[in-house]
Amino acid sequence: MISNEVVELSRLQFGLTAMYHFLFVPLTMGLAFLLAIMESVYVMSNKLIYKDMTQFWGKLFGINVAMGITTGITLEFQFGTNWAYYSHYVGDIFGPLLAIEGMLAFFLESTFIGLFFFGWQQLSKMQHLIVTWLLALGSSLSAMWILIANGWMQHPVGAEFNYETMRMELTSLADIFFNPIAQVKFVHTVAAGYTTGSMFVLGISAFYLLQNRDVAFARRSFRIAAGFGLASVLSVIVLGDESGYTVGEVQKAKLATIEAEWETEKPPASFTVFGIPNEQTMTTDYAIKIPWLMGLVATRSIDEEVGGIKEILKNNRKRIKRGMIAYDNLQKIRQDKNDAQAKSVFEEYKGDLGYGLLLKRYTDNVIDATPAQIDAATRHSIPKVAPMFWAFRGMVLAGFLMLFIFAASFYYNAKRTAHKQRWLLRLAVYGIPLPWIASELGWVVAEYGRQPWTIAGILPTHLSVSSVDAGQLYLSLAGFFVFYSVLLVIELFMMTKYIRLGPSSLHTGRYHFEQEGGEHV
Amino acid sequence: MFDFETIRIIWWGLLIFVICGFLVTDGFDFGIAMLLPFLGKTDDERRVMLNSIGPTWEGNQVWLVVLGGIAFGAWALVYAVLFSGLYTAMLVLLFGLFLRPVGFDYRSKLPNPRWRSAWDWALFAGGAVPVVVLSLVAGNLILGLPFQLDADLRSTYSGGFIDLFQPFALLSVVIGVALLCLHGAVFLLWRTEAALAERARKVIFWSSLVFSVSFIIAGVWVAIGLDGYHIISGIDTTSINNPLAKTVEKANGLWLDNYSQYPGLCLVPLHAIIGAWSVVWLSAKHYQGLSFLTSSLVVICVILTAAGSMFPFLAPSSTFPTSSLTIWDSSASHYALQLLFVATVILMPIVMAYTTWVYRVLRGKITVADIKKNNNILY
To answer: What distance separates the 2 farthest-apart alpha carbons in chain B?
Structure first.
C-alpha cells in the first residue's frame, strides 16, 4: 500500500512550490504586455519618457522574471520526481503538451528576453518593439499550453484507457485543445495576470505621486495601468472560471462545494453570499442568499439545474461500485488477454474505473472493499466544503476591490485629476497585494477543488505518487524551504530597492534623485 | 505517416538531438560558469565573462526544459522511472539550476564587492553542480540503475544518492567537467580578448588533455571491465509497449555489441578525440569560429558515443534486467509520437532560426571598455 504520509507530503510540496511559482508568473505576463504597450507608445510618439518607462518597469520585470524561471523548472521536475505514476499514467497526453509549450512558447520568451534587455543599441526601434511584443506573446502562449494541460486534468477529454499499456492514451489533440474548460481557464488566468501587472504599476506609480516625485513619469504609468487594468479586471470577472464548472462530474462537485449547496435546488439556484458551512449536519448556518444569482453565474441560464452535494455523493457511490466491477475485469484481462467475457464487461464499466481506484487508498485489492470502506471513499470523493467556500469568496472579494480601484482610477484619469486624489493613490498602494491574494485563492479553488483526483474521474491523487520514502520528501521539502525563503528575501530586497530608486535607477540624469534637491541614495 | 517501429527510432534520434542541442548551447554557459571564479581576476573581467553569455543563456536553458518535455511526452515511462528513482540527484540538480537566473540578474545590480563575490560563487555552483550531477547520472545510466517495474508498471528503486558515486560514474564526471570547460573556454576565446582570452587558451589545452585521456580510459573500461546489456528475446519492435515481456542479458563488454556489428560507428569516438585536439590547434591559429564549431562537434560525438553503444536501451536495470526500458517498450502511443513529431519538425527549425538571428545581432567581442561604458545596463 502507498503510505498516506508520502501522499500528503508530495501534495504539500507540489502545492507550495506551485503557489510559490505563481507569485511570479502573473506579474511576468502582465508586465510583459504593459512593457509592450509602453514601448509602442514610445515608437509612435517618439517621446523619450516612454522609453524610460519601458526600461524602468523592465528592470522590475527582470527581477521578477528571474524568480519565475527559477521556480518554473521545479514543477516540470516534480511530475517525474514526485508523481512518477501520474507521469506514466497520463504522460501520453500531458507530456506532449508540456513539450509543445517548451518549443512553441518558452523558447520564444526566453530567447527574446536577452534581446529585450541588451538589444537597445543593436536593434532599430521597430525591431526592438517587435522583440518586446514577441516576449509578451511568448509568456501568454506559455500560459496557454500549461492551462490546456491543466484544463485536461480538470476535464479529461480526447484520451482513452489502454489496458495493455496500463495508461491513458491520446486520441485527439483537437479535443484537448478545444476543451471548453481549458479555454475558460486560459482567458481567466491570463487576464488575471494582466490585472496583476496593472495593479503593480498602478500602485507603485501612486506611491511616486504621493511622494510628489517623478510626477510626469508616474502619471503616464498610472494612466496606462488604469486603462489596461480596468479592461483586464473586467475580463477576469465577466469571464470567470466558474462558468466552466458545469461540465463534468468533478467540476460540478467543485461548484457545489464553492456554493455549499447541500441539496439540489430548483433552477435558477440562489447564491449564498455568507454562511458557515457545517460538514457534519450538511447544512449552511446563518446563510444569506441572493436568489437566482448562482444559476445565472454557473449555467448562464434560468432553467438548468446546479447539482447539490448530497446528490453528487449518492452518484459517486454508485460509480465506485461500478468501478469495482471494472477493476475486477481489468485484472482478469491483464492475466489472460483472450478472456472475451471479461473484456466485454470491462468495456461496459471502464468509464468508472477511476472511481474504483479511489478504493486503493483503503484496500489494495479494491474488489474486497467493505461497505464501510466504500462509504469512506464516497465521503472523500469530493473536496471539503469550508476551504472551497471561503477561498472562492476571498477571491471574488479581492476581484471586486480591484474593480473599484481601477474604475475610480480610470474615472479620475479621464477627469485628469487622479494625481490629486490622495485617498485613491493610497488605496492603490495598499491594493498592491490584492491580485496575488486573488490568484492564489483562485488556484486553491481550482486544484484543491479537484481532489481527490489528479485527473478528474480517472486517476486518484493517492495513486499518482512516486515510490519514494518519506525521508526523501522531508529532505527535499527542507531544501525548498531554505532555498525559497532565502531567494524570496533577496528578491523582495532587490524589488524594494529599485522601486524606491524609481526611474533614477536608469542613470539618465532626468529623474528625481539625480536632480538638485533630490536626496541621494 | 510512419509505422510504429520507424517513429520510435525517429524519436530516439530526436531525443539525442535535443540532448545535443542542450549540451552544445547551454554547455558553454555551464563551462563559463565553472571557470568564472578562476579565469576572471577582476570584477570587470568576471562581468565580461558573464556578459558574453548573459543575453543568451536563458534561451539555451530552454533546451533542458524541452528535453524534459520530450522525455515526458515521447518516453513517459523513462521519465517517470529516472526522475523518481534518482530523486535526490534530481533535486540537487534543480537546486543548482536555481542559482543561475537570479545570479545573472541580481549580481551586478549592487556594487558591493561581497555581494558580487557571493553571487560569483553561486553562479559557479550553478554551473558545476548541474554538470556534475548530469555526468554522474549519465555514468550510472551506462552502468544500469537498480529499479524494478511491477505488474501495474509502477517502478521501485533500491539505491540511494550515495550509490551513484561509482568509480566509473566519477570518471564520467571528469569527462563531463573537462568537456564543458573546453567548450566554455572556446566560446570565451571567441567572444573576449586580451588577458582573459589568453587564460581561456590555456584552459583549452589542459581540458583537451584531461578530456581525451579520461575518455580513452572510459572506452577501455567499457570494453573490458564493465557489464553491458543485450536483449535476447521477447521484444516486438512494432507492437505496443510491454516492458515486462523481454529477457535481457547482462555481461561484460556487451555495450560494444553495436560497435562490432557496425564498425563504422568507431569513427564517432575517434572524432571526439581528434576534434578535441583540432580545437587546440585551431584556437592557437586564431580560427575562433571554426574552433567553436569543432568543440560543438566534440560534445555531439561524446553524446553519440554513449547513445550508440546503448541503443536500443534508454535505461537498463542493473538489478532486474527484464525491467530495463528500451525504445521498443517505453514509448508513447503511436498517435502521440506522430503528433509530437509533426509539432517538433515545424517548431524546432523556427526556434533555431530565431535563435541564430539573436546570436547574430549580439555578435562581436565583449571588452572591459564595454562594461565600463554600459555599467548600468549590463550584468
So the answer is: 67
